[in-house]
Amino acid sequence: MSQMQLRTINPADLAQISRALVGFDQYFNNTRTHSNYPPHNIVKYSDSDYAIEVAVAGFSKEEITVEVDQDQLVVRGVKSEADTDTKEYLHRGLAARNFEQNWTLAEYMEVREAEVTDGMLIVRIERIMPEALKPRQIVVK
């Protein structure tokens, strides 16, 4: 019977993982605990197009803010007081508490737009590589 080996991640391995996650490495490396509310997805469409999808059922678009401050993307949801004052819930199965989620964006990541559709907030992010950093072809004479 073979013995199971434990493997630790060394700094070089971690650097490779971080590069592969383009823009979201701090999300996984951050030492503070991220809340699981509301649930969210991080989607990679291509090498330059990404999105963060946040489940915001029960929130109107006026109750949601998306803010970029330097390299921090902050998404907040704050329920209006008027909504809870006019309703009496007999059963409340949908969580509708206030929330704040933070993501650290890597260099050259730019938030393009945010849209609420069918209870999902979709924040589109694009990696804009400066021309000076792009590979270029040299003409051989």
List the helices and strands and how they pair.
Blueprint: H1 11-20, H2 25-29, E1 40-44, E2 49-55, E3 64-69, E4 72-77, H3 81-85, E5 99-104, E6 109-117, E7 120-127
Antiparallel strand pairs: 1-2, 2-7, 3-4, 4-5, 6-7
Folded structure, characterized:
The chain is an alpha+beta fold and 141 residues long. The chain has one domain: Immunoglobulin-like, CATH 2.60.40. 14% of the residues lie in helices and 33% in strands. The strands form two sheets. The protein has a four-stranded antiparallel β-sheet, with no helix packed on it. A three-stranded antiparallel β-sheet has the order 3-4-5. A hairpin with a 2-residue loop joins strand 3 (64-69) and strand 4 (72-77). 14% of the residues are buried.
Compact overview of the structure:
With 141 residues, the protein is α+β, with helices and mostly antiparallel strands. Helix content is 14%, strand content 33%.
Instruction: Supply the CATH class.
Output: Mainly Beta
From the N-terminal CA to the C-terminal CA, the straight-line distance is: 63 Å
The structural class is alpha+beta
* Number of strand elements: 7
| Averaged pLDDT | 80
Output the strand order for the largest sheet.
1-2-7-6
Rg calculated over all Cα atoms? 20 Å
Helical region count? 3
Question: Roughly what percent helix?
Answer: 10-25%
